[in-house]
Amino acid sequence: MSAQPPVIPDYGEPSACVARDATFCTDWFGDHWWNLFWPALVQHLELTLIAVVLGFVLAVGAAVLCHFKSWLAAPVSGVTSFLYTVPPLALFQLLVPVTGFSVLTVEIALVLYSLYLLFTTILTGLREVPEDAVRAARGMGLTRRQILFKVELRLAVPSLISGLRVTTVMTIGIVAIAAYVVDQGLGSLILKALQSPFNTQFIGAGALAVALALAADGALVLAGRLLTPWARTRRAA
Amino acid sequence: MRAGARQRAWAGLLALVCLAALTGCGGAASATGVRPTVVIGAKQFTEQWIIGEMYKQALTKAGYDVELKNNIGSTEIIDGALTSGQIDLYPEYTGVILQVLARDESIPHSARDTFVKAKAFQEKRGLTMLEPTPFQNKNAVAVKPAFAKKYGLRTIGDLEKAGHVRFAEYPDNISGALGYTELVKKYGLTDTKVRSLNIGLQYKALDHGDVEAADVFTTDPQLARGNYTLLEDDKGFYGFQNVAPVVHKDVLEEQGPKFAETLDKVDALLTEKAVQQLNRAVDTVRLTPAEVAGKFLVANGLL
């Protein structure tokens, strides 16, 4: 079997741009959009969305709890801020022996990171709801639960959105490091372009991560405007 | 009382039938060939990405369920992933197994001896190894030809004659058994300084004069053009380094004999010439590892 030499296919030559590893080769980027960059972009978005949505749900729950039982705020804030200070790369490596080289590892780390900013901004938003509004609602006979859902959480939407904006942009950045754990997302292309140096792949993937962060931020600003029509009326007046 | 006993008997019978059905079903499933997905691991450099892709594509074609996890490094980490069952197999270099994992100080005198010893080591751990590739990818010390000429360098030990030498080493190979620290000790080099650089950056560092010597791999496509001189490893520090899949014994049993045959066929094709061209297709022509592996397997009738 090994006596016969293998057929080595002709792999051709790189384009002139690729051959000198120019800063950015548009031809190569275009050729590899569908089999390299697009799938990585989608994976990057998926990893980010799962983490931010889970983190948001947990953080809203924790913030509401701390809003009602204010003695809880200090310990919860302490724990989340401690988690926030652990370097992402270290946290990934700490989790690998437990949950393996898996998406689960990545998401656990990302959710833990998202908690601090989300929790802090949401709790601040709830606390800054004008006392008058709450008193008026109570006067109208709303229950504590109704006040939370119909008054406080709605008036806190701007804070919720600003928390989501910072967290989403940060998570998109950390997902790029997650390539050390799972071979997914734009970080995987960046990591491979460092291990086998190639500018176009490195810069292309990096630029896409920036574009993704800007687009996500823009989408959240838009969502915030749609959810707070009263703010617009006030601005218009 | 009698009625209660009868009820209990019926319940017991029912439970037995259920149990029989369950185990029967399990047995039938494994007999009809519903096999678990095999997870292949690969380390964090070009050659491993290509070999990983080849294993994946050839096995998929042969009807196996396969998943590939790239970029698991270094050697200790991917070995941990294998022994803990996170991955089922990965391609490893025979000498690396002895030097890094078995911590075997003696260097065998042939490639075959290295493979046999490495396999014996893995078998003690519930693992085994399939047939090795014809090619080897050894570490080697590269310098610029002008530098070698200036100081008359032929072997790694000759670096001592070149004064202060800055040495490029990839980050996870500074302290290991094949790493910079051990190399310097083995060759008695006294005036060197290590610079930690990712794999692939060593050549740029040599070209720019940031370092004088660098740890490289013999299958690097950059070596094909004669722009670098490899210093002879006359003390056999780097040993023999053929590639063979390291795999869990029970996975091999579970998947049947055709599984190993498929991997053996792929590995038999990997000669030094082929691997240099494959690495070049990824590192220089800039095709993806999946494209390069696929084209090679098609050309050799495996896909």
From TrEMBL, chain A:
Q: Where are the transmembrane segments?
A: 47-65, 72-92, 98-119, 155-182, 202-227
Q: Where in the cell is it found?
A: Cell membrane; Membrane
Q: Key word Membrane present in the record?
A: yes
UniProt keywords (A-Z) are: Membrane, Transmembrane, Transmembrane helix, Transport
Swiss-Prot/TrEMBL GO biological process terms: glycine betaine transport; transmembrane transport
Major location, coarse class? membrane
Membrane topology of the entry = Multi-pass membrane protein
Database matches in Pfam families: BPD_transp_1
UniProt lists the family membership as follows: Belongs to the binding-protein-dependent transport system permease family.
* PANTHER family with a match to the protein in the record: GLYCINE BETAINE/L-PROLINE TRANSPORT SYSTEM PERMEASE PROTEIN PROW (PTHR30177), OSMOPROTECTANT IMPORT PERMEASE PROTEIN OSMW (PTHR30177:SF4)
This chain belongs to which protein, by name? ABC transporter permease
